[in-house]
Amino acid sequence: MVPELPGPDPRPALPRSTTLLLALGGATVAAFGIAAIRGVFTPVFLAFVLTLCVHPLRSWMHRHGVPRGIATTTSIAAVFALLLAFGMVLVSALAQFSALLPQFAPQLDRVGVAVAETLAAVGFGAEQTDGVREGLTPERIIGFVNGLLGSVTTVVSALVVVLTMLILMAVDGSRVPALLTFLTIHRPALVSAFIGFGAGVRRYMVATTVLGVAQGAFNWLVLVLLQVPGALLWGLLSFICSFIPNVGYFIAIVPPLFFGFLSGGWPTAIGVIIVYGVINSAIQSVIQPKYIGNAVSLSETLTFVSVLFWALILGPIGAILAVPLTLLVRAVLIDADPSTGWRRALTGDKSDLEEILRDEDNEIRIRRAHWRARLPSPREEEA
Questions:
Q1: 246 near 304, Cβ under 8 Å?
Q2: Long-range contacts of 82-88 (CB under 8 A, 24+ apart)
Q3: Angle at 357 between CA 356 and CA 359, to 5 degrees
């Protein structure tokens, strides 16, 4: 009998510290790589999100007997119409802003002088105070806003990429059901992760859009009543900022507060603070986290950190796409691997914690009932 030769020794597992360092290093390289190609990555991912949002329309039409080509063309036309309407509103809003700001040049100059005098009184030098005063001019403010949006060439290039990818993704989307069926045989967890990602993105976009429209319309109406210049423009800004979790409220309140102060003084400014502080904080801090959290199962802390991270990587549009991007990362790194499914709880998914939380709530209610009745608690009775 030939003795069995020992097989090769299994490769030793890397220490946990080494694994963590390698993971952090790889994530850092990936983040810098995405930041380097943000001009291509951002419009492609935006087109991907829009395609996901209109995919149910194409599927619904196909199920009801509409030919596949007509269904695909209709979904493309729907996205194009949305982008065209949004672009027209944005262009008109920017034109209104550019025409509105020079009307308040004297007030801006007085505000700049007051701020410069205040800074000088607390010890700032002449160079800093002059810079602040020169920055509060219509030309500088309009230039700053245009700088945030990017040059015309950059915007046009991004739109070309978005529109091209929408057409190509919509055409390829007709083959997605067959592709998922094929992949289910080989990688069922990966298919489940992608399906969950698509459903989560659609729920997030629908819930955010509905709440954003209501928030923007309400803000526009209140600003009209307060006679704040550019009320429609600030209502549109409030709608756009509703896609930026946690931070959008603070961005949306600055322009109406500023113009309200210039046009009506402190009473109007206080009215804007009350409206935005009470109503909008209730929407973004209570209603929106409840529905958005249930839709995507992300904790509020992770959502806020993701806004900061993706804004740093991709710029302002990264803050708007922060939640879909985070959902994609979770789908690829966690949901696609059954052995790491327990890590979803770390990202804010409470589905596996409901029984534990329910038991803790019941324990708290029992203790409160015993305390109110001046009865010993169950543990004291056992003792």
A1: yes
A2: 82/50, 83/50, 83/159, 83/162, 83/163, 87/159
A3: 65
What are the tens digits of pLDDT across the range 165-220?
Answer: 888 887 777 777 788 888 888 888 888 888 888 888 888 888 888 888 888 888 88
The span from the CA of 42 to the CA of 39, in Å, is: 6
pTM summary value: 0.77
Q: pLDDT tens-digit profile of 239-294?
A: 888 888 777 778 888 888 888 888 888 888 888 888 777 777 677 666 666 666 66
Written as one string, the DSSP assignment of 237-300 is HHHHHTTSTTTHHHHHHHHHHHHHHHHHHHHHHHHHHHIIIIIIHHIIIIIHHHHHHHHH---H
Domain spans of the chain, in order of start? 37-174, 187-351
Which secondary structure element, helix H or strand E, spans residue 203, and what is its range? Answer: helix 188-225
